[in-house]
Amino acid sequence: MELTAAAKKVVVFDYGFGNVRSAERALARVGADVEITRDFDTAMNADGLLVPGVGAFAACMRGLLDARGDWVIDRRLSGGRPVMGICVGMQILFSRGIEHGVEAEGLEEWPGTVGPLAADVVPHMGWNTVDAPADSELFAGLDADARYYFVHSYAVHDWTHETHNPLIAAPKVTWATHGKPFVAAVENGPLWATQFHPEKSGDAGAQLLTNWIGTL
Question: Where, if anywhere, are coiled coils annotated (predicted)?
Fold first, then answer.
């Protein structure tokens, strides 16, 4: 599989809760100029910002706030500058998360609650297909039966975001099923995110990252 991407500057935001080295290697594989940092100016000035996330919602939020990641994300999005969240890095973009009875506020980029997976087997660990919109840019060039690597026990099961302004494109929502369907990815202007790990998803994940970098 031949992968190409412009040499765009991408910062993997290092706030202590993500597989930053795996993300760095995956992005470098598809041609990005990658730096792992929490430096505010560097993160602000990069062509793209990748926000990983592993662990509990509340802990990730505390780490992100301590690193001023909320400011970085908000200011980049205000200027239309691309941000991509992965796994818990996607979950914290929603309004709140509830884990083990502990409720924490998220960044509220999208309304919705991250809660326990509605499935007999938890965590959801392994390969799964997704149901992406036909006009998805994130999944462009990928077959419908492509599989992606998931590791999570929590997800968003109900998408409630609505766009009433006809001049603003509605978010594109991709779903996956493990027990009950859950949100697997979102494309919303400059803000994209995946519940699965593209950096662990082989050639399919590499193509997906190439698609993202191609929009920077």
Answer: none
Say if CB 127 and CB 86 are below 8 A apart.
Answer: no
19 or 134, higher pLDDT = 134
Burial of residue 162 (CB within 10 Å: 0-12, 13-18, 19+) is: exposed
Query: Residue 121: CB partners within 8 Å, gap ≥ 6?
Result: 178, 179
Q: Are the CB atoms for 154 and 178 separated by under 8 Å?
A: no
CATH superfamily, domain 9-213, is Class I glutamine amidotransferase (GATase) domain (3.40.50.880)
163, 169 Cβ separation under 8 angstroms: yes
How far apart, in whole angstroms, are the C-alpha atoms of residue 194 and residue 168? 22
Q: Are 30 and 199 spatial neighbours (Cβ–Cβ below 8 Å)?
A: no
Residue closest to 105 by CA, chosen among 75, 62, 151, 52:
62
Cα–Cα distance, 159 to 13 (Å, whole number): 26
End-to-end Cα separation, the chain, in angstroms: 22
Positions annotated as catalytic residues are 87, 197, 199
Tell me how far apart the alpha carbons of residues 32 and 26 are, in angstroms, rounded to a whole number: 9
CA quadruple 37, 43, 49, 54: dihedral positive or negative? Answer: positive
pTM of structure: 0.93
- pLDDT of amino acid 91: 98
Q: Phi and psi of 64, rounded to 5°?
A: -65, -45
Q: Give the range with max mean pLDDT: 3-17, 18-32, 149-163.
A: 18-32
